[in-house]
Automatic annotation (TrEMBL):
Pfam families: SAM_MT. Coiled coil: none annotated. InterPro entries: 16SrRNA_methylTrfase_J, SAM-dependent_MTases_sf. Gene3D superfamilies: Vaccinia Virus protein VP39 (3.40.50.150). This is SAM-dependent methyltransferase. PANTHER family: RIBOSOMAL RNA SMALL SUBUNIT METHYLTRANSFERASE J.
Amino acid sequence: MKTIVTTAYRPTSSALAWANRVSAELEILQVPRNKRSIDRMQEDEQADLLVCLKERLEFYPMGKTEPFFFHPNSAAFRTKRPLEQDPLIEVAGLVPGDSFLDCTLGLASDSIVASQRVGQRGRVVGCESHPVLAYVVAQGLQQYSNMPHLEEAMRRIEVVSCQAVSFLQTLPADSIDVIYMDPMFTEEITEASNFTPLRGTADRGQLTVQWVAEAKRVARKTVVLKAHFRSQDFERFGFIRRMRPNTKFHYGVISIEPESKQ
Ligand SMILES: C[S@@+](CC[C@H](N)C(=O)[O-])C[C@H]1O[C@@H](n2cnc3c(N)ncnc32)[C@H](O)[C@@H]1O
């Protein structure tokens, strides 16, 4: 499905200029709104819509009238608790100064938590294969300003719009401390979240032998997988599953032993 960019019903000159910029950067068509509703415009243009409002970008995949937009989501409350007790941070063994590659950036909630943990001396790169999602999240990470305690962590995240395996192949061996993957669950999830409008649009690709092999080559400390508690991917790809009672998802970890790389 193609994506086009437009504005609100009555665009300000800055929203129009922004839509121009988005059109050029994403190499997509800019189409005048002409006071059309979202569903009318999707129907007329047969396209997903990216809408430049005054303060944020909204993405309406075809057939969805609820927008997707950037928000720190779970990172907002997770970063209010001691970070070393966050299940992802703990299982990854992530410490200040580490580098962290999130192969499946999505809304960037996990990356924000990781970025808060690694701090100024650390580095966080987020890889997302859906180009429009990568763009909306990258823009939000740079501009979102309602949570001052997370600003520095959000601004630090470098977003790459790319397939995870292709990106990993560009990286030298042993160059990133922790590599993380959280592919879309294949099981039905009933809880609504900010991600709900993207369910049919995001990349539903699953873990592969090549993906795990590349992650192990590039990782210095750990490779971490998040998956549904019923997923067999932990065992299939050699992750040690960390049981989390009463949760819908588990984490699994592969610890990198330097001697295993020789
Ligand atoms: C479940 S979401 C990740 C949520 C994320 N952990 C967060 O905290 O918001 C999975 C995301 O990974 C992306 N994705 C799936 N397969 C990918 C791949 N092979 N390379 C890069 N991104 C991928 C999807 O488009 C989706 O946005």
